[in-house]
Amino acid sequence: MSPTEFGVSPNRVDTPYDDHLITGPRPAVAVVGAGRFGVALARAAARTGEVLVWSRRELSFDEPSIRVTSDLAQLAGAELILLAIPSRYAGEVLTDVGHHLDGGHLLVHVSRGLLDDELRTMSHLIKTVTPCRRVGALAGPISAELLITSTPGAGVVGSEFPEILEAVRATIGSPTLRIYDSDDLRGVELAAALTGLLLFTIGFAQRVGFGPATIGALATRGVAEVARIGRALGARVETFGGLACFGDLLAAVAGSDRPELELGRAIADGASPSAALLHAGGNIEGIEVARRVAEFGKRRKIRTPLADVISAMVGGQLTAADAVRKLMVRDVGSE
Amino acid sequence: MPQPEPKRSRIRDLLTKPIRLPQWFTERPAGGPRIFSFNDERDQVVGEVAARVVGQCLGEHLEILLNESAHKEIERLEKQRDDEAREWLGFWRTVVRTLSRMSESERREILRQVVESMARDVAGNFDPRVYHFAQKMIPGMIAGVMNPKQLARDAISSHKVGVERLVSITGHVEQLTELAKIGTVIVVPTHSSNLDSLAIGESLARQDLPPVVYGAGKNLFTNPIISFFMHNLGAYRIDRRIKSQIYKDVLKTYSAVMIERGYHSLFFPGGTRSRSGMIESRLKLGLAGTAIEAYARNAIRARSRGEQPTPIFFVPVTINYALVLEAESLIEDHLKEAGQARYIIEDDEFSQLDRWLAFFKRLTTYGAACVLRYGQAIDPFGNLVDRQGRSLAPDGRVIDPVSYVSRRGEPCLDPARDAAYTRELGQTLVEHYRRETVIMTTQLVAHVLFRKLVHETPGVDLFGRVRRRGEITWAFDAYVRSYLETRDRLRELANAGQVHLNSYLETDSAERAFERATSAWDGYHTKTVARLDGDQIVLEDPGLMLYYQNRLVPFAEAIAGEDEQRAAREIAALGGLSR
């Protein structure tokens, strides 16, 4: 290389390092997975431009800007890929998707699940089986209805990459849907997953007959508990006070129809875990999350009273009445 | 405002300024590593660093920036009271006094002067003659200090002397040789001792790999002999006392410019030496992160020519010592500060000649007491690369690394994006370090002993445990059983590719391993770690035991038997507490 190539002002290489922002048109968007939420995402995205939906099933949309494919290779042409797949299929699907992607793709998932006993999240899987690094998670009190009907609402995108936020805002953000950002990806993912555990608890408490004061106490202490778990895994505590956890929880108390609530209610009615799951429908992991969190807390010496009693109760070692008693007789500390 | 004239002092020059050999009769090496022609480029590098930093600072509020730097510099220089203080204090005081009256162009000129002077102070030197001299002589000198008789014998039989018995090199060295010809290599080792840079430098020279540039703390330059070698072997100086933002920008830009220009570099991404003895579990990367910016800039340049940029490879290296020169100071510091390490330890074993001699004497009798393991190279985005230097996706497909710094197919600059890549890279390197760790006999013996100590002291915290000097004894035959079982489990981990074992661990009997470890410790450390009293082992110094066993923290649960699980869990939990 000749020295002049490194001269000070030949081209944009020498623009200041942070003079970078690309404010271009909306990115090419694809949605992977055509469950209820995937379809809602596709419809919301179709308001701002073309959308490619990948699905194994035969599907048809009445909107002309939505195109359906079962050919994964076509995903390579998208810039922003929204992943709406249940975590139990995620490994397989992502491995296949990964064959067609590179470092230029932006991947955003909406998973509320955890992958294993180390409480690893979807972004870990994405980075392990695909070459993609620019990863984000969309969470908060966004329901499929909200996306489809454009009722006012807000969500949060967790990502360390600013371009992810720009792309998601440009795609589904609107005057009725505010998309906030957080650079605490892990926090947003954990908040989304662990809120399922709290929703389950609230559903259970409602059906057992507890009043608003009890539910308020359970929800608040529950947020503190999952925030402790988050902190141990490198997330920021504040994230749990945001849309991804607290916002989602308030929506549930205000009457959202999240299946985790239904699951809690079914268990309170005395259904077995498998029957309760069947009843609640949806791909939910509330019960499994409770067990994982309780185990994790024990291993890492973190207090997880809520997860402990729930996993014991679901496992049949504790009755509902005993569970409540156990929670109440613990030593009281400062908040 | 005129820049301060340096005051002349021969002695001070000798101590602090780069000593360079005269440039007469130097042959210009053709086709040698890029660093061989660094001196011709130095002024350009300094100029470019200065221009880029000044360019970056323009956008900020220059007055605030200069004001902040001036106050930080005045505070530092007033404490320092040396020649540098006499030169620069007046300059900075004038800046503070006149700053508010200056025009924008005057401020810019002040900034340029400051940045240029800083960049010149940072910039290193490289003299191929010193390099060749060092390559031939330093291993011999080290070996000679340690074992003069052997030196004479070796000198007769071959050119290379003795060091290979001290430092053994394993891992993906051949890949590194190939990659150094294809792209720019960034060597990122674990850091436990000030000897690390010597060990790395020596290992590169021994494998005929090109030398690397690296940043060394200015405190290492105070010894004129070490300073001479450092200066002339491509080291650049980092003065950790300077806190101003401008200086930090200069350092970052210097390292980015050097990587952009294709100089192989060395960084210790852990920052300081591991106080606890643990393998680094959190990396900030610091200057190593500038490689991503450098890659993005090169990608933009290359695109405008329709080419691919020169690839950049990160090569993780674990440096595994059976004995660590500064172990006693480091673990003491770790326990005292409970993880809040002091940045510079001024008076540790590194500055004590008698400790050096004792250390090297013990090392030579140990045999390969330091194992350097070169890991698989990765690109700046954490992907493995093949022997041709091509980045590989997890499915083994070749992918284009430029895609990571591109938006809509065009490479572009973005500090927030690169900061995110840097954090990711830190996590990836931690995983590589763990896999490439080579467990040494002293570490495993210390682990088995320390686990016993934890087992025998339930409910006691770490600080309580390290005070239990000489209180616990253990029947030697029970120890032997525990050691052998632990080693077998460790071997299974090694077979699964999760860690590596030093060859002595493979071949030594339990009794021999205990003897090897204790004689290494006894011959060097001032405290006894453990001793045999009849058929009982007395656990003497839990602090050093902790230090050496800490390398096994990530594996503690996997290598413990059933009745040792509780103790193993407590040991594993140490990993969450500290660096």
Can you offer a commentary on this structure?
The complex is a heterodimer of chains A (335) and B (579). Helices cover 48% and strands 11% of the residues of chain A. With 335 residues, chain A is an alpha/beta fold. In chain A, strands 3-2-1-4-5-6-7-8 form an 8-stranded mixed β-sheet, sandwiched between helices. The N terminus of chain A is likely disordered. Chain B is α/β, with parallel strands linked by helices and 579 residues long. In chain B, helix 15 runs antiparallel to helix 21, helix 17 crosses helix 19 and helix 17 crosses helix 21. Chain B is globular. The interface between A and B is large, with 41 and 50 residues.
Which residues of chain B form runs of ≥5 with pLDDT under 50? 143-161, 339-344
Largest sheet of chain A: 8 strands, mixed
Strand order in the sheet with the most strands of chain A: 3-2-1-4-5-6-7-8
> Which structural class do you get from the secondary structure elements of chain B?
alpha/beta
Describe this structure in a few short sentences.
The complex is a heterodimer of chains A (335) and B (579). Chain A is of the alpha/beta class and 335 residues long.
Task: Record keyword descriptors for this entry.
heterodimer, A: 335 residues, alpha/beta, eight-stranded mixed β-sheet, 14 helices, globular, disordered N terminus, B: 579 residues, seven-stranded mixed β-sheet, three-stranded antiparallel β-sheet, 16 strands
